[in-house]
Please model this.
Amino acid sequence: MSESKFTVLISDDSILARKQLKDVITKVAPDALIEDAKNGQEAIDKFKELHPNLVFLDIVMPVKDGITAVKEIIEYDEDADIIIVSSTGTQTQLKNAIEAGAKDFIQKPFTPDQVEKVIRAHIGGK
Model:
């Protein structure tokens, strides 16, 4: 990535879930610029504005769900690095998210170690 700043977008309708993820990401990547969105449409709009290096998306959200958001983000940028973070991890939804273009999945409630492992796997040496 050519950006000098590592940018992360967190999209979840739960303010608590967004804060928990932000806290973990800040520990793993203290220099990261972290933005958040409260629904799928906002995630799509902010993705187009920010071009983040990594996106964390919930599946069940108002306006547009996470799977629809994944599809629209991937349609806009096929290289988007999207991680699904959801408590509704049915096999069908997970399969749909991966088929739509998500690169990984974290089950809620997550541990800081799970999030850190995924971030390190996706950002490499950054």
In short: The beta strands are 7-11, 33-37, 54-57, 82-86, 104-107. The chain has one domain: 7-123.
